[in-house]
Design brief:
A two-stranded antiparallel sheet has the order 1-2. The chain has one domain. It has 78 residues and is mainly α. The protein is built from four helices and two strands.
Length: 78
């Protein structure tokens, strides 16, 4: 992995599919959720009108992931 690729991977999720396609950002997240069996839940996010929202939302979360993680991953509360 070269320095450019390492920097890009730090900014957003990258997935290389079984057929060699590279998915980045929101497309990678949707692919992962589909692979986990949540295709019916997230499949509609692939529709073109939804892509206008998924990209910017993913970008915001990726830029602010440390802030978002404080609320999303609070640990075991029991």
């Amino acid at each position: 992995m070269n320095d450019v690729l390492r920097a890009r991977c730090e900014e957003s999720l990258h997935v290389i599919t079984a057929d060699g396609e590279t998915l980045v950002g929101d497309r990678a997240v949707i692919h992962v959720y589909e692979g986990l069996g949540y295709g019916a839940l997230v499949g509609w996010l692939r529709w073109a009108p939804m892509r206008w929202f998924t990209g910017p939302v993913y970008d915001w979360v990726a830029r602010n992931r440390r802030f978002a993680a404080r609320f999303a991953f609070r640990g075991d509360s029991t």
